[in-house]
Design brief:
Elements lengths: L39 E5 L3 H13 L4 E5 L3 H12 L9 E4 L10 E4 L15 H18 L4 E4 L4 H12 L6 E3 L3 H14 L8 E2 L2 E2 L7 E2 L5 E2 L4 H8 L5 H22 L4 H15 L4 E9 L8 E10 L2 E5 L6 H21 L1
Bound molecules: nicotinamide-adenine-dinucleotide.
Length: 348
């Protein structure tokens, strides 16, 4: 269980005053007890995204006790029953629909409650509707699981993470947005397609900033077998010139719109992305992913939730990396921060 009472904000695991800083010397609060095999996870919102995350968690054997909560109780019950009936084929001891009381003492809570985008809607169009839902949900989570790590998936995910952090009063390292983890995986997949289908797990690259229309592909951080993007392009005989980069940025940014136009919602990709985030936390893997986190100071950006590469483990976020970016990337990051700051203010 997390215990944050002994740590000051300045010495928090998420403090971000320097580039790729090491935590050595910091006294961290006790995080999740990752030696336990009994991990309780609750999912608030059992629609397309919540139920897909539940299914993926069960298939990966991440949770031993999984609780689904939804205002549509029948939906939560149906999803829990459907997944539970696969118990002989998976590694989970319990999945059930329940109330907030049933979520009490969760190690990790995932919030997917809220409206999704309709064709043509941006994520930011959802902000007022979902902020009101987020306030109710986050208050219930804080009441019943005051020590939990909170993963916010509902859109617009950066602003919703901010609302959840404000309402719960949890330290920022325990309130994480799924951010651009999915966008980064889309970018890595697209790179893999260009690079002779090299295993996307071996292609490192990040989409940073807003999980939304102002996000940007950080080409300067791409790394394949120790090679940067120019060397990689040469090695594979591929052109990553400005036209190609623009096209790939557009494909990454437009991916959700394209899927929603065809099938009404996106849920498999985010289901897998959220499950990786959860695994990294409950198993204290210290994996690096581009989650949304509260940035306060670095790059001159103050108190804005946005995506940067972070280390995920038992505390939630233990490092935030602030790598050197090119001038164009810095302009894009600042643009995202301005949009998100304005969005946050509209729901503060
Ligand atoms: N972060 C990402 O990368 C990402 C990707 C896809 C979708 N999303 C977002 O996830 C959210 C859910 O999408 P979806 O497709 O599952 O939508 P959905 O409509 O299928 O499911 C939402 C569920 O939330 C429930 N709900 C609403 N208010 C609630 C409340 N107060 N308490 C509990 N449950 C409540 C609804 O009954 C519904 O079952 C949306 O905001 C969507 O934009 C985020």
């Amino acid at each position: 269980m997390t215990d944050t009472s002994t740590i000051s904000a300045a010495a928090s695991p998420a403090s971000t005053s320097s580039t790729a800083r090491s935590n050595s010397g910091l006294v961290l609060p006790r995080g999740l007890d990752v030696s336990r095999t009994a991990i309780k996870i609750s999912i608030i919102g059992a629609g397309f995204v919540g139920s897909t995350i539940a299914y993926t968690l069960v298939m990966r054997g991440v949770a031993s006790d999984l609780v689904l909560v939804d205002t549509n109780t029948a939906r939560a019950e149906g999803e829990a029953m459907d997944i539970a009936h696969g118990a002989p084929f998976a590694k989970v001891s319990s999945i059930r629909a329940g109330s907030y009381e049933d979520t009490a003492g969760s190690d990790l809570v995932i919030i997917t409650a809220g409206t999704n985008q309709k064709p043509g809607e941006t994520r930011l169009d959802l902000i007022q509707r979902n902020a009101s839902i987020m306030r109710d949900v986050a208050a219930q989570v804080a009441k019943h699981s005051p020590q939990t790590v909170l993963l916010v998936v509902s859109n617009p995910v950066d602003s919703m993470s901010y609302v959840a952090q404000q309402v719960t009063g949890f330290p920022s390292w325990r309130v994480i947005g799924s951010g651009t983890v999915l966008d980064s995986s889309r970018f890595r997949y697209l790179l893999s397609c260009e690079l002779d289908m090299v295993d996307a797990r071996n292609i490192h690259g990040y989409v940073l900033g807003e999980h939304g229309d102002s996000e940007f592909l950080a080409w300067s951080l791409v790394n394949v077998a120790g090679m940067g993007i120019d060397e990689t392009a040469q090695a594979f005989g591929v052109d990553f010139g400005s036209d190609k980069r623009r096209q790939m940025a557009e494909q990454t940014r437009q991916a959700a719109y394209e899927i929603i136009a065809r099938k009404g919602a996106t849920y498999y990709g985010i289901g897998m992305a959220a499950t990786r985030i959860v695994e990294a936390i409950v198993r204290d893997e210290r994996s690096i992913m581009s989650c949304s986190t509260l940035l306060d100071g670095p790059y001159g950006i103050n108190k804005v939730y946005l995506s940067l590469p972070v280390v995920l483990g038992q505390h939630g976020v233990s490092h935030v990396f602030t790598p050197d970016l090119t001038d164009d990337e810095m302009t894009a990051l600042n643009h995202s921060a301005e949009i998100l700051s304005e969005a946050q203010n509209s729901v503060a």
